[in-house]
Amino acid sequence: MEIEAIEPHGLCSGVNAAIAKALVLRNVYCLHELVHNEIIIDELKRLGYRFVKRIEDVPDGAAVVFSAHGVAPSVREYAVAHGMKVVDTTCPFVARAHKAVRNFVKRGLKVAVIGDTNHVEVIGILGEVPNGQLLDVNKGKRQGGVRARVGVVAQTTMNADDVTRQVEKLRKVYDVESVAEVCFATKERQDAVREFCVRAADGVRFAVLVLGSQKSANSRRLAEVARQCGANVFMVGTMDELRAIDFSGVERMGVTSGASTPERFFNEAMRFLRNAPNHVAIIMDGSGRWAMQRGKRRGEGYEAGARMLVDVLKWCGARGIRYLTVYAFSTESWKRPRAEVDGLMKLFARMLKASEREFFKNRVRFRMIGRRGDLSPKLLGLVEGLEARTAHFERELIVAISYGGRAEIVDAVNVAIEKGERLTEETLRSYLYAPDVPDPDLVIRTGGESSTSNFLLWESAHSEYYFTDTLWPDFSEKELDSALESYAMRHGAF
Ligand code: SF4
Questions:
Q1: Mean pLDDT value across the chain
Q2: What is the Å distance from ligand 1's center to 393 Cα?
Q3: What is the residue with the minimal CA distance to atom 2 of ligand 1?
Q4: Contact at 8 Å (CB) between 297 and 255?
Q5: Beta-strand relationship, 142-143 and 146-147
Q6: What CATH number does domain 94-182 carry, 3.20.20.70, 3.30.2350.10, 3.10.20.880, 3.40.1010.20?
Q7: Residue whose CB lies within 8 A of the most ligand 1 atoms, among 9, 11, 12, for a mutation test
Q8: Domains of the chain: which residue ranges?
Q9: How far is the CA of 295 from the centre of ligand 1 (A)?
Q10: How many whole angstroms from 309 Cα to the centroid of ligand 1?
Q11: Does the CB atom of residue 94 touch ligand 1 within 6 A?
């Protein structure tokens, strides 16, 4: 079965922001589920979150979180009147729908809300509409022979095509003023599913797997869109549910996830489906030779290599690989000609600045391993700033700079000596540069050499190795897939 990650998928900006706000809080009340996903809810419960369905269930004066779906004005008023400390994570798209309704109401228009009347978001929006101003589609179509003017808003996570149809229907009867907007994230994800289905329906039996909770409206809509496009649809909320599915007969499958599904679940599912590694490490060798073969400066080879890294990071993400560690600059590399070293340091600085937007877009955490004290204060500042700003993302790019496998072990041992500790494998591991990162499953070396070059000596004790003659700037998605296939074939035989 051919597996494809449908892009974009997963956590939207609204949910991401809500989670980032929520994760720093402890022992608070949360009105409704912060987002409709059991994995995230379980994590918040571990932080002491208490989820309640009514604001009246929150004690006076307590801290309460309003979810990304927003709340009715009466709920806010109640919270203020009872001295609660409110942490509001309402998504800006939902807040915009509230504002539009308030505007309609102020101008005396009747209001129609397209959405699921039981959904928390719709309940909150309806709370903005006073009695008698909600549109009854069976009454008041004409005011003195003129079509009545009405305001229309939609739940942000509706099926965009359904919303368009409903608005058109209303237009036949009313003079519609519409802000019937499905949010950008929802629309983008639905469009990507449609586009996959059009491409996949090429005489093959194709399917769409939606990763998301049944409680999540936007996940259910993704499944609905795929079904409307003729796909066989599977929807699962946990790895156990995924393991229980029989995919036999499916020739091509697109995988997507709802806007409240954590990337961790997506990655784990992709790895399971593809038998892919969790952590890939790469010795990016051959950029200098690549440049020389083309009569270019070595620096141009390193720049081409840096561009390749951006692509490889993207390809790894699409394959569910959570950790990518790359060997960029070894402790021995300081012995290279001064001009070359300076050029490389400048290139790192440029890449760090240029990549920040991509890291945020693809939710990638950046980390450095190596001897930080060897870097200039300016470069170290850039590195540590980016590390801090991306620390909450789940996927990781770990760049080894001024790194040596032996140096890492020596540094770890020295920390233990300073602490007067007798080392075991576990304690030594805890003093490595990134002790929480699992060992690499697969180490790829490009450039035709077949040594380990002092890279991740401790961590790669049980890793699979894949060597290729391809020079790093010429590495390709196909070559990555060959390495992953080779891993998949050998994996488990160890
Ligand atoms: S799905 Fe849209 S409206 Fe809902 S939280 Fe995400 S961005 Fe906001």
A1: 92
A2: 18
A3: 183
A4: no
A5: antiparallel
A6: 3.40.1010.20
A7: 12
A8: 11-90, 94-182, 188-273, 279-490
A9: 51
A10: 31
A11: yes
Rounded to a whole number, what is the distance in angstroms from the first to the last CA of the chain? Answer: 25
Domains 11-90 and 94-182 alike in fold: no
What is the whole-number distance in angstroms between the Cα of residue 237 and the centre of ligand 1? 19
Burial (Cβ within 10 Å: 0-12, 13-18, ≥19) of residue 228: middle
Q: How far is the CA of 144 from the centre of ligand 1 (A)?
A: 40
What band does 140 get if pLDDT is binned at 50, 70 and 90? low
Which of 9, 11, 13, 116 is the best mutation target for the ligand 1 pocket, counting ligand atoms within 8 Å of the beta carbon and taking the most? 13
pLDDT tens for residues 29-41? 999 999 888 888 9
111 CA distance to ligand 1 centroid (A)? 22
CATH 1.10.3210.10, applies to 11-90: no
Q: What distance in Å separates the CA atoms of residue 29 and residue 18, rounded to the nearest whole number? A: 14
pLDDT of residue 180: 64
Q: Which of 56-70, 86-100, 167-181 has the lowest mean pLDDT?
A: 167-181
Top-tier CATH class for 279-490: alpha beta
101 lines ligand 1 (CB under 6 A): no
In CATH, what number does 188-273 get? 3.40.1010.20
Kindly give the distance from the C-alpha atom of residue 261 to the centroid of ligand 1, in angstroms, as a whole number. Answer: 12
What is the whole-number distance in angstroms between the Cα of residue 12 and the centre of ligand 1? 6
H or E segment to which residue 253 belongs? strand 252-257
* The residue type at 108: G
On the question of pLDDT at 418 being above 80, the answer is yes
The structure tokens listed for 441 are: 């499953």
Pocket test for ligand 1, best of 91, 213, 257 (most atoms within 8 A of CB): 91
With a 6 A CB cut-off, is 124 part of the ligand 1 pocket? no
Structure letter (DSSP) for residue 463: -
pLDDT score, position 145: 62
Tokens 């890939």 label which residue?
A: 280
Q: What is the distance between the alpha carbons of residues 80 and 322, in angstroms, rounded to a whole number? A: 43
From the CB of 403, is ligand 1 less than 6 Å away?
no
Q: CB of 31 closer than 6 A to ligand 1?
A: no
Any ligand 1 atom below 6 A from CB of 13: yes
Question: What pLDDT digit, counting tens, does each position of 75-132 carry?
Answer: 999 999 999 999 999 999 999 999 999 999 999 999 999 999 999 999 999 999 998 8
DSSP 140: -
Q: Which tokens sit at 32?
A: 């409704």
Report yes or no: 244 and 289 within 8 Å, Cβ to Cβ. no
| Start-end of H helices in 132-236 | 160-173, 184-200, 217-228
Question: To which H or E segment does residue 467 belong?
Answer: strand 464-467
